Amino acid sequence: MLSMRVLERGFTLVELLIGLAIVALMLFLGVPAFTTFLQNTQIRNAAETTLQGLDLARAEAVRLNQPVRFQFVSNFTSGCTLSATSLSWIVSLADPTGACNAKAWGDNVTNTSLSPAPSAPFIIEAKSAKEGSANVALATTGGSTLVFSGLGRLVSAGITQIDFTNPAGGTCTYADPTNGKMRCLRIQVSTSGQAKMCDPKVTDTTDPRVCN
């Protein structure tokens, strides 16, 4: 009776070493690009979250037909101050300085029948843009606050520009086209109160991403 021998073949040591070398090379080439992608994503997350806050403040001003404020604050404690460098923001009816830990009332800010009744600063929404954007740095032009009228227009001078950078990921591409890796973003606020997110690197005036 003939017996059949099944040939079993594994990987040789040389083949394993070659495979490991290929994987190591792919990681070496891919990790920096992936890291840059993550750092740029943090910039976009922070910019989009801030733009949402500005749009909310304007929409609520129109809905309530009264002035509504958007302001960057240092933190969400009873010792908070207005800040032109913090990513945390509050939309409210009154200045939240020293009361950023107050309960947010949302749609009920004008409902005095609530128990307990809403109290100043009548916070509509508070948001920390640090969520998912830990390395992002912010710089504003025009201070820390915007106030929208019941018509959705600016009540007085305030923030006109907000720049988002990521020093942990490197310099901005628009500032250093050769070595810059960060696609830094900007929010511009028009005199009519309209907020727009744009890319300072874009120079084509027909591109919707261009900054004015």
CATH superfamily: minor pseudopilin epsh domain
Order of helices and strands: HEEEEEEEE
Residue share in helix: 10-25%
Distance between the termini: 89 Å
Structural class based on helices, strands and sheet pairing: alpha+beta
**Strands of the biggest beta sheet: in what spatial order?**
3-2-1-5
CATH class: Alpha Beta
Report the strand count: 8
Overall 3D geometry? Answer: elongated
Biggest sheet: strands, sense, closure? Answer: 4 strands, antiparallel
- The radius of gyration over CA amounts to 25 Å
Specify the CATH architecture: 3-Layer(bab) Sandwich
- CATH topology heading: minor pseudopilin epsh fold
Unreliable stretches (pLDDT < 50, length at least 5) are none
Number of helices: 1
Give the mean pLDDT: 85
Please identify the oligomeric state. Answer: single chain
Residue share in β-strands: 15-25%
Q: What number of structural domains do the residues give?
A: 1
Break the fold down into its secondary structure elements and pairings.
Blueprint: H1 13-64, E1 68-72, E2 88-92, E3 123-128, E4 137-141, E5 145-148, E6 161-165, E7 185-189, E8 195-198
Antiparallel strand pairs: 1-2, 1-5, 2-3, 4-6, 6-7, 7-8
